[in-house]
């Protein structure tokens, strides 16, 4: 993940990976300690609008 933007651009159908909303969701995922297939699914779900 790159530098987090200040404001969400609300691009559809998925949020960009630098979106602050996605960054917050990824931090929560990181705390759970997911790995492998579960991690990929969680990242995909974090970018869904």
Textual characterization of the structure:
There is one protein chain. With 49 residues, the chain is mainly α. It is built from two helices and no strands. The model has no long low-confidence stretch (mean pLDDT 86).
Describe the structure concisely for a colleague:
The chain is mainly α and 49 residues long. It has helices spanning 20-32, 37-47.
Summarize the amount of helix as a percent range.
40-55%
Approximately what portion of the residues adopt beta-strand conformation?
Answer: under 5%
Low-confidence stretches: none
Helix segment count?
A: 2
Radius of gyration: 11 Å
In terms of quaternary structure, the protein is single chain
| Mean pLDDT value | 86
For the secondary structure, the number of strands is: 0
Largest sheet: none
The dominant shape is globular
Structural class: mainly alpha
SSE pattern: HH
Ends distance:
18 Å
Present the secondary structure layout.
Blueprint lengths: L19 H13 L4 H11 L2
Question: Features of this protein?
Answer:
single chain, 49 residues, mainly alpha
């Amino acid at each position: 993940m790159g530098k987090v933007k200040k404001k969400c651009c609300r691009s559809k159908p998925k949020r960009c990976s630098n979106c602050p909303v996605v960054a917050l969701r990824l931090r929560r995922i990181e705390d759970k300690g997911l790995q492998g297939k579960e991690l990929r699914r969680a990242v995909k779900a974090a970018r869904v609008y």
